[in-house]
Design brief:
single chain; alpha/beta; Rossmann fold; two-stranded antiparallel sheet; about 35% helix
């Protein structure tokens, strides 16, 4: 590891400092100051309120608070755009630990990542929501299901769109195949960031059409 660190120095994505041998993906200083949301044990938290009147969910949670001016936004950027899958997996493990500690997610049956269009997944090399879902699956002992919820329409990035533009962009983007796999089950829908909730709402509407299905939502970050 020491030789690899010399050849390929590891740096903290938040502050840019070289990581010490005992540090994994974040330096200890930045790790200690992570802007946790505590939504996982907070009834009627802002992530849940986001879906009131739009989507019937059991609960919703995010690991971190995302602020545009905060250096911690670099975690999501490094994971989503710079290929730092290990960092995303590490954050997913943190999220899983909090969900399990809360006890509110123990009745989840299946974990479903928000799908990427095949072209976008090919260009990026991976689906960031799947990385998170797999980390949750390993910790929670629940299967990941990627074959039922599908993205059928290639959409442009949501980043610079307002709430109406975001909804229009994804309104017809998803579909369900073999939806009976969700019948009577509690589905945990997973994505990297919750902003307006348009993408998660579009996915959730399809999932909840399945008889007896219940839905909860988790993300790594909530945009404040």
């Amino acid at each position: 590891m020491a030789i690899l660190d010399l050849l390929f120095p590891r740096v903290c994505p938040v502050c840019g400092r070289l990581l010490l041998r005992r540090e994994r993906y974040l330096c200890l200083s930045c790790l200690a100051d992570l802007p946790f949301s505590f939504f996982w044990s907070w009834p009627n938290n802002p992530a849940e309120v986001c879906f009131w009147g739009r989507l019937h969910i059991e609960r919703a949670a995010s690991l971190l608070i995302y602020r545009e001016e905060s250096p911690y936004r670099k975690i999501l950027h490094a994971f989503k755009y710079n290929g730092c899958k290990g960092l995303g997996r590490h954050m997913g493990e943190m999220l899983a630990k909090r969900l399990l500690e809360s006890g509110l997610y123990n009745d989840i049956d299946v974990i479903v990542p928000v799908p990427l269009h095949p072209l976008k997944r090919w260009k990026r090399g991976y689906n960031q929501a799947t990385i998170i879902a797999e980390a949750l699956s390993k910790a929670m002992g629940r299967p990941v299901e990627e074959r039922v919820l599908r993205r059928k329409k290639f959409t442009s990035t949501q980043t610079k769109k307002d709430s109406i533009g975001r909804w229009d962009n994804v309104a017809e983007a998803f579909s369900i195949k073999n939806g009976s796999k969700f019948t009577g089950r509690h589905v945990l829908l997973v994505d990297d960031v919750l902003t307006t909730g348009a993408t998660l709402e579009a996915c959730g509407q399809h999932i909840l059409k399945q008889e007896g299905c219940r839905l909860s939502i988790v993300t790594l970050a909530y945009v404040e």
